[in-house]
Amino acid sequence: MGLRKVAIVGAGITKFVRRAEETGPEMSYLAAKMALDQAGLKLKDVEMVTVGSAPDAFDGVHMKGEYLLSGAGGNNKQYIRNFVGGGTGVFAPIHGWMHVASGACDVCLVVCSEKMSSCHPHPQGAFLTIFDHTTEQPLKPTLIWIFALEMRRYMETYGLSKTDIARVSVKNKNNALDHPSAQVAEAVTLEDVLNSEVLAEPVHRLDISPASDGAAAVVLVSEDVAKRLTDKPIWIDGVGWNLDTAYWATKDLYYPRYVEKAARMAYEMAGITEPQKQTHIAEPYDPFDYKELHHMEGLLLCERGEAARLTAEGYTARNGNLPVCPSGGALGVGNPIAATGLMKVIEIFLQLREEAGKRQVPGKPKVGVAQAWGDLMQVGTVIVLRR
Amino acid sequence: MNIEKVPVKGLTSEEYDKAIKISWQPKLQYAWDNGIAIGKYLQALKEGKILASYCNGCGRIMLPARSFCELCWRPTDGYTYVNDTGVVNTFAICHVNWDASRLKPDEPRHIPAVIEIDGASQGQGIMHIIGNVEPTKVTIGMKVRAVWKPESEREGSITDIKYFEPY
Amino acid sequence: MKEGVAIVGIGVTGFSSVSPSLSFKELTYSAAVKAYSEAGLRPKDIDSFITASEDFMEGYSIFDEYVPDQLGAVLRPVQTVTADFLQALGIGYMMINTGRFRTIAIEAHSKASNIKTLDEVQSFALDPVYLRPLKENSTFLAGLEMKRFLEDSGNTEEQCAHVVIKNKKNALYNTNAAYGANLTVDDILSSQPISLPLKHLDVAEPADGAIVVVLASHNEAKALCKNPIWIKGIAWFSGQGNPWSRNLCSADYATLAARKAFAMAGITNPLKEIDFAEVCDEYSYKELQHLESMGIVRKGEAGFLTENGATGLDGILPVNVSGGSLGVGHTFEASGGMKTYEAVLQLRNQAGKRQIKDARVGLVQSWRGTPTATGAVAILSNE
């Protein structure tokens, strides 16, 4: 049995918005339909479906996967939901890859949907219950705590200033002005970010991506089917994922070692030995601006502690040596958790096909990497795509 | 792909208020079995002490106490008390509550921190709150000690420690 | 590389109505130790790990966070699927077939005793717009379906009671079972009404426990294990859960999954070619409905066959020799795991008093429970 190649041949994204009129299943349908239309396929051509969606607490439905299935095309199909926290958006296509690469099917639909706005009084409240119920929740932690703790550790380790980090938010929010799905694209300046409300020192409001509703989908097919459908299949060259210990307070937070391990797993499969040279475009997960830097280092796209300097030098701009988050990322487009990760995968897909419109980076990129992160600073999910 | 007309309509907060909505407040109550290790950890907190486990395989003294070493894949070799002092590994000064509502101007700021506990292995920290100090005076590397609730008020919970203060 | 995926190690800690001495981590660790040691593997030798769990059953948002430590999987590729154990097993099977993974560990557990408001959690899965506002206990869906199924198939309430009797009696011979009992038809028919025709004794009661399985590719399995249990076929299907948009008479998910699993395993005459079946009996009528839907027996016959002992230990097709969920306890996402455990014991000739003679091929089937229409089927064999 040879190793089967798997390609992405269609993609769809809805708008990312703060309070969607549509339900989770409806958003899933819209994204899935877009993806199938682009691939030139119908739902009956789809054999299996995998759905990614982050905490059930957002949509307020137990067994959220079963609830989404009607919209995600799962009726009378082999359908399953994968869920690795914030890493889900990039893990979902990896899950789809398993379906096709194993020979179990030739056409797999991957859908990610999130409706955070259902959760009241604020979606952030759902994150109280990600902390250990016995040893941590009694302290009434909020999601912002862990980011602020990690950000401060990162800044202190490398002597970075808030300005160094805010540059990422400026880059991404401005990049997002060219993304049709964008929720919070804005021509912000450094001053805007640094003057925005402090939520948890050192985190300001404009350092954070918003709570969002949205969905995205991709169609994965085997090599034979890909060649029949399109002359621009984008191959999944490498997949990697890694989960660190639940005892998050016993690790040094300045470096995401689990992202590195996931990246190495994906790079090895893709035959990439020098990621800095052999990767042309990157979409690391950026729910907070410092995370883009944190993840660039974890993805081995630069030396530890160097990401901020490279950003300041324009290295990661759309016309830089290594465009990072040309989509506008979570910071600019929005962060409906699972759909964000898939949005990033789709960005690489579009960029490699030179179909990214105003966001297109120059130089005809051939290899791109997308990454998502999640849980309590634990999960890294990485995918390498190649034209 | 040309995303000509991207679907999904976002409502403004006024539109949202006027929309027909269905709300539901689920009753989700759990009573988690603490098991051997966490049971002992909580019991120790009630007694005003912090309990760790040690593994002779990797030599770590770990927090919170656990019955098996997840790295060596073997039962831990025993429990040992560690100090109730430590060093701040990282901290934040928080102006929002768990539900994203803002703290009122006269309410004290929340200062969560990761505190590396003295007596446990390097890097073994727990999350807790820093108190009794000006937020601007908190630094990474600061030495802190636990301030316990009086014995009669302790329940066997992480909140038996009110906060950690500098010393 | 020869094809084939086998179970080379399995460990269970359970099943009981409560498990207060162990946390879920300790429970799972104990099952994992058994499974890995049976497989002769250390965690670092295992290529990837899969957990089947649902957040609201654990009381955590993102339960995935709390998975790796008790599987020895820190800084390893770990994933969570919100599905039944059998579906997770199917993903592991796929992963090995990609050719890039040699061994996979799969776990699921139930700590249902820790959920004080279990009914509320289950009702939280109902459609928020169309069903939940009715404020009914979600078992009403099972009562509804049972009535329609019995009317359409001609099976009777008494025959459903025979399922309960058989399974709880079988459980008396299973040291891992929580709800073994010796009952009469009257006991069941006169038990408290829940959602008629569903009565208290028709419903499997929750149990705690954990199960871990180690899968290996063909070559690894041959090297590791004297008696690997091969997965000959595995499939799952989902349908719309809402009762007005699906078939209430027959379980389509079971029909489709069985058809696919039989095809993968080369089975054309299930009744003859399968030696035993572990079938979902979360509600007594479900065992009959699943047997008929999978095409193992003809429509309307399952009740009659059960009443006459055809699905007993000495019958033509022993069903739920373990005791099923009715006898062992309902373990939610771990249900498929409990049934897999029984199948493995039978196929290894390790089932003691309840050993079926010459067991070579077994069928394992699961359903995700109300309000879903999702279920899986696996065919296991020792050849």
Distance between the termini of chain B: 61 Å
Shape of chain B: extended
Q: How confident is the prediction overall: mean pLDDT of chain C? A: 96
- What count of helical segments of chain C does DSSP give? 14
Largest sheet of chain C: 9 strands, mixed
Question: How are the elements arranged and paired?
Answer:
The complex is a heterotrimer of chains A (387), B (167) and C (383).
Chain A: E1 6-13, H1 24-39, E2 48-52, H2 56-59, H3 64-68, E3 78-82, H4 88-101, E4 107-115, H5 143-158, H6 162-175, H7 190-195, E5 198-201, E6 203-204, E7 213-222, H8 223-229, E8 234-243, H9 257-270, H10 275-278, E9 281-283, H11 289-298, H12 307-312, H13 329-333, H14 337-352, E10 367-374, E11 379-386
Helix pairs in contact in A: 4-14, 6-11
Chain B: H1 13-18, H2 35-46, E1 50-54, E2 61-62, E3 68-69, E4 74-75, E5 78-82, E6 85-91, E7 93-94, E8 112-117, E9 125-129, E10 143-148, E11 161-166
Chain C: E1 5-16, H1 24-39, E2 48-52, H2 55-58, E3 78-81, H3 85-97, E4 103-111, H4 118-123, H5 139-153, H6 157-171, H7 185-189, E5 193-195, E6 198-199, E7 208-217, H8 218-224, E8 229-239, H9 252-265, H10 270-273, E9 276-278, H11 284-293, H12 302-307, H13 324-328, H14 335-347, E10 361-367, E11 373-381
Parallel strand pairs in C: 2-3, 2-4, 9-10
Antiparallel strand pairs in C: 1-7, 1-8, 4-7, 5-6, 8-11, 10-11
Helix pairs in contact in C: 6-11
Question: Mind explaining what this structure looks like?
Answer:
The complex is a heterotrimer of chains A (387), B (167) and C (383). A 9-stranded mixed β-sheet of chain A has the order 3-2-4-7-1-8-11-10-9. A two-stranded antiparallel ribbon of chain A has the order 5-6. The model of chain A has no long low-confidence stretch (mean pLDDT 95). Chain A is of the alpha/beta class and 387 residues long. Chain A has one domain (6-119, 210-386): 3-Layer(aba) Sandwich (Peroxisomal Thiolase, Chain A, domain 1), CATH 3.40.47. In chain A, 35% of the residues lie in helices and 19% in strands. Chain A has helices at 24-39, 56-59, 64-68, 88-101, 143-158, 162-175, 190-195, 223-229, 257-270, 275-278, 289-298, 307-312, 329-333, 337-352, and strands at residues 6-13, 48-52, 78-82, 107-115, 198-201, 203-204, 213-222, 234-243, 281-283, 367-374, 379-386. Chain B is mostly beta strands. Chain B has one domain. Helices cover 11% and strands 29% of the residues of chain B. Chain C is of the alpha/beta class. Chain C has 14 helices and 11 strands. Chain C has helices spanning 24-39, 55-58, 85-97, 118-123, 139-153, 157-171, 185-189, 218-224, 252-265, 270-273, 284-293, 302-307, 324-328, 335-347, and strands at 5-16, 48-52, 78-81, 103-111, 193-195, 198-199, 208-217, 229-239, 276-278, 361-367, 373-381. In chain C, the strands form 2 sheets. Chain C has a 9-stranded mixed β-sheet with strand order 3-2-4-7-1-8-11-10-9. In chain C, strands 5-6 form a two-stranded antiparallel ribbon. In chain C, a hairpin with a 2-residue loop joins β5 and β6 (198-199). The model of chain C has no long low-confidence stretch (mean pLDDT 96). At the A-C interface, α3, β3, α4, β8 and α9 of A face β3, α3, β8 and α9 of C. β5 of chain A pairs antiparallel with β7 (93-94) of chain B, so a sheet runs across the interface.
